[in-house]
Sequence to fold (176 residues):
Amino acid sequence: MKFHDTGLPGALIVELEPSQDERGAFTRLWDHDEFQRHGLPAGIDQCSSAYNKARGTLRGMHYQVAPHEESKVVICVAGAMYDVIVDLRPASPTYKRWFAAELSADNSRALYVPAGFAHGYQTLRDHSTVHYLIAGSYAPEHARGVRWNDPAFGIQWPEDTRIISPRDRQYPDFAA
Fold:
C-alpha cells in the first residue's frame, strides 16, 4: 500500500498493490499496521457495500456528527466512480474545500476519508459496486448531509445526468 496526499489534511489516496499471477489477482484492502504507521484509525467497526445499477447514480454528501463521526476507506470493486470529499472541520485550514478522485476496479486506488468530512460519489459506469471499511458505528440520529450541488462548495461533477435519491436532493444549503 502506498499513501498519497490529497491536499486536505488527513485525507489520503491509498494506492492498492495487487499481486497478480496466472490465476488473477489478490489485493490487500486493509492493513492495520500500515494505517497505524500513517497515524490513521486502525480499527474497522463496519464493512458495507453499495451496488449501483446505472451510470450517473449520485450518492451523497453524507457524514456523521460528534460523538459518532466516522472515518472510512472507500474502494470501488466493480465499475468506476467519481469520489468526492468535503472538509467540514471548522478549525481546518482547508475548511469547505473539496477533493475528487476517480476510483475504479481497474486503477487499484482507494480513498481514506477522515472523520469530519462529507463523502459522496457519482458512478461513471453501469453496475458499479463500492465497498466501505468504516471506523465508527452508524448512528442514524447523528447522520447528516450536505447537498451535492451546494454553492458553498462548488464541487465540479463529471456528468450532467444524475440519479439521486429524494433524501440526497433535499439537503439544505450549508450553513456554517
Remarks:
- The helical segments are 32-37, 166-169.
- The chain has two helices and 14 strands.
- The CA atoms of residues 11 and 113 lie 5 Å apart.
